[in-house]
Amino acid sequence: MNYFNIIYGFLFLPIVIILYNIMPKKIRPIILLIASYVFYFLISKKLIIFIILSSLSIYLATILMQKMTKEKNESMQNASKEERKIIKEKYKRKKKIILIITIIFNFAFLFYFKYLNFFKHLLQDLFKITGNLKIVKHLAPIGISFYTLQAISYVIDVYNEKIEATPNIGKVFLYLSFFPTIMEGPITRFSDVNDTIYEGNKVTYHNFCFGYQRILWGFFKKYIIADRLNIFVKLTFNNYFNYSGLTVALGIIFYTILLYMEFSGTMDVVIGSSEIFGINIPENFRQPFFSKNISEFWSRWHITLGLWFKNYIFYPVSLSKPVKKITTFVKEKLGSRISSLVMGGISLFVVWFLNGLWHGAGYTFLFFGMYHFFLIITGNILEPLIIKICDKLKINRQNPFYKGFQIFKTTILIFLGELFFRANSIKDAFLMLKRIITHFNLNTFRGEIFTLGLDIKDFLVILIALLIVLIISILKEKGINIRKEISTQNIVIRFALYYALIIGIIVFGAYGPGYAPVDPIYADF
Amino acid sequence: MEKLLEILKELEPDVDYDTCENLVDGRYFDSLTILTLISEIEDNFDVEIPTVEIIPENFNSAQKIWNLITKLQEED
Question: What CATH number does residue B68 fall under?
Fold first, then answer.
């Protein structure tokens, strides 16, 4: 089952809503917990044991750390300043041991399921080991990359005394396994959902309508756009050597569009589903294709992953003792701008290495990470120079044309990054780029464009659907709350819009013979 | 506070620090600018900023940054 399966939207979710609503307030969160575990079991069967172990480990660790924090605060009450420092240090050490054990315990599962085979291959490649290392093929528990990061964030936040550990074991289990977010995130911090996830508030008519409205919007993006582009993308990436340069270029552009529509569409279903139960989940996208540079793009695309890396890797690495030592040395020799570039550079390298690896255990993903590291760090190094050049040439950087140029440049760089992300190998990605230049033939393009699973009607549908997405994105970017605007319209207009959306999906959705639905891409990460 | 304003002006001269309330949320400061700022604050005010304090709410205005510095100085 996945979120775009009709069984999810029109059977599983309605049953959960009904059961949830007929139960008393206290029982409702337990219904969500049972639903989440049923959902999980349907997909991952006996691998469910691993999410139970992770949940249990973070529950015990945080309770223990909370107890220590309480003890620390009590013993500090009547202590002198000096004594307070000693007490603080003592408890910090104790808590750190628990923190490290819990992190290792949780990452060990992730490593085993996702990276063990990759590292065996890597060792083989690096040391030219002949013969075969034992490669064990196994399915990973669904959502392990997402819930592990959530688990770690909760433990670290309690360790840092940013939040209090909850004594409610059901709440911790639900936080990690909540069925709308378990497959593809958003990577939610405990503080994001602490107030709502275990409240058991009744499903209101308003939440129900708003939730399903958002789910339908996700269906629109996935069924009308992403699924329609899938065959074209598959053919161009797998058989690029048969197609003209222009077709390959179009395939690359289509893949980024497909990825955005599939992933952001999933997030619409996820956030909509949570909204029905009054549970606020953070947004994962904020009009990413209006970004003026790569680092802005990453603050608008897969936002919660970016924030996780920023909070738990970027700043801690930047401010760690060894990095600080290096930067102090550089600062004395070369000044503070260079030293902060070095400090940020080291941390950005770690972040993007891990970010690449998080997306998948493979060279293409590592390349994808390093590509973005290179772009961001170069952007930072060149920034003062670009400002100087603009000033010299009297280019107003606030000018809409200049901004448009920046957005265009960023979009092209993103297309290239996603090419490496999707390509079957790094070599294939470069060969595809080469083909765009060496086989740029308009006549061949004309002859083959309608042979890749899309006819003129399909192209037209994609174009109109993308225009609708673009208009809505522009309105959102201007700060207009479209859903609120719709809700203030009278009932005839509102329902006309909903029916138009439903009929649009049924009539123009790319399903049935001749189409192949996109598998949930991020669920594999 | 004057010393802080001096540091801030050197970092991003175009910002009006008297009125700006969204230095981080409005993307006037990116992560690298914040790192430079932290390093300057640590050198000039003899405090150590723990990672847990690096949240937008603490860096969104000059006044908030100043509040963070005084809080850390008192705790020390």
Answer: 1.10.1200.10
Residues A125-136 pLDDT 10s: 777 766 666 666
Domain ranges, residue A324:
290-413
Residue of chain B with shortest Cα separation from A344:
B32
> Which of helix, strand or coil describes residue A403?
helix
Q: Residue A310 has which token pair?
A: 């920023």
Joined together, the tokens standing for residue A237 give 């990436």
Q: Is B2 on the interface with A (CB under 8 A)?
A: no
Q: ipTM of the predicted structure?
A: 0.82
Q: How far apart are alpha carbons A494 and A216 in whole angstroms?
A: 14
Contacts of A327 in chain B (CB under 8 A): 39
Domain final residue, candidates A136, A169, A202: A202
pTM (two decimals) = 0.90
Query: For A513, which DSSP code?
Result: T
pLDDT tens figures, A242-277:
999 999 999 999 999 999 999 999 999 999 999 999
* Same-domain check for residues A175 and A43: yes
Q: Are A228 and A454 in contact (CB under 8 A)?
A: yes
Nearest CA in chain A to B25: A299
Nearest to A380 among B32, B40, B54 (CB): B32
